[in-house]
UniProtKB/TrEMBL annotation:
Transmembrane segments: none annotated. It comes from Halosegnis rubeus. It holds the Pfam family PG_binding_2. Residues 206-279 form the Putative peptidoglycan binding domain. It comes from the Archaea. This is DUF1028 domain-containing protein. InterPro entries: DUF1028, Ntn_hydrolases_N, PG-bd_2.
Length: 303
């Protein structure tokens, strides 16, 4: 009762897994990834040994097809399993055992594989593949878009519960200390993919770095007023609400930046992001501030 996508971005050398399931904490079971090896999704009576064993095989130079063959050949219950593998070398393979519950299947493309079981229909995996190929942006955004598309096309026939996004790249982790570039999970939620996207945006703004803009835009006009009102509602600003984002308003934004650990981005870049992202943002109050910052930053390349 799970659908997932495993994919690699050759430009950034990022590789990872996105998954949704009617199963609690799917992120603790399905995704495995290592920047020096590749990424694996194991599901449908998941054999979690496929993760470390498969990564070890990739690390030793086996391609994805050989990894799948080796893993399933050694597993007496392979026909009830489903697995997708993408190697650091770009090789791709998937497997759906004959005893997986219907509807189950997998589809592969260039540097990605999609797989699902107990699905509402076969269109789920096809929609995920098509959307991944057609979506612009970074690997995390493309993986999330694929999850949304699969869910909208039919998804898990038993419903929704949890979702996860796990992406690695060399020195992509906190302060460059490991390869864990994106690691977000929603363990139990009525709309886990929507919630996963919300958490990812917060994670992105807080932990991932972007190239600074060549020029920054100041907050003015109605957008400045809206941001000031929101900061006032949060208890951070008690000045006059106007179309000028003055020093007092910037001090309030600096307080907001510090409270939310957004130090990856300078105050000027944060103001620029709000100016460029406010119109595209959703929600009210603090959630809209964060969403606006994310939209404004999204036009900049990640480091």
């Amino acid at each position: 009762m799970t659908f997932s996508i495993v994919a690699r971005d050759p430009e950034t050398r990022a590789i990872g897994v996105a998954v949704q399931s009617k199963f609690v904490s799917v992120g603790s079971v399905v995704p495995f990834a290592s920047a020096d090896a590749g990424a694996i999704a194991t599901q449908s009576f998941a054999n979690v040994e496929y993760g470390p064993d498969g990564l070890d095989l990739l690390r030793r130079g086996h391609d994805a097809a050989a990894v799948v063959e080796t893993l399933t050949a050694a597993d007496s219950e392979a026909e009830s399993r489903q697995v997708g593998v993408v190697g650091r070398d770009g090789s791709v393979a998937g497997f759906t055992g004959d005893e997986c519950f219907d509807t189950a299947g997998d589809v592969q493309g260039e540097m990605y594989t999609v797989q699902g079981n107990i699905l509402e229909n076969e269109a789920t995996v096809r929609a995920m593949a098509d959307t991944y190929e057609e979506t612009d942006g970074g690997l995390p955004e493309r993986l999330l878009a694929a999850l949304h598309a699969g869910n909208e096309a039919g998804g898990d026939s038993r419903g929704e519960q949890s979702a996860a996004l796990y992406v690695v790249k060399p020195e992509g982790g906190y302060d460059g200390g490991n390869d864990r570039w994106v690691d977000v999970r929603v363990d139990d939620h009525d709309a886990p993919i929507d919630e996963l996207e919300r958490v990812f945006k917060l994670y992105d703004v807080t932990l991932l770095e972007r190239e600074p803009p060549a020029e920054t835009t100041e907050l003015t006009g109605e957008t400045a007023r809206a941001v000031q009102r929101t900061l006032a509602d949060l208890g951070l600003y008690d000045g006059d609400v106007s179309e000028v984002f003055d020093a007092e308003a910037r001090d309030a934004l600096e307080s907001f930046r510090g409270l939310n650990n957004f130090e990856n981005h300078s105050l000027d870049v944060l103001e620029d992001a709000l100016a460029n992202g406010w119109a595209d943002a959703d929600g009210e109050g603090e959630p809209r501030l964060v969403d606006a910052i994310w939209h404004g930053l999204s036009r900049l390349d990640r480091v």
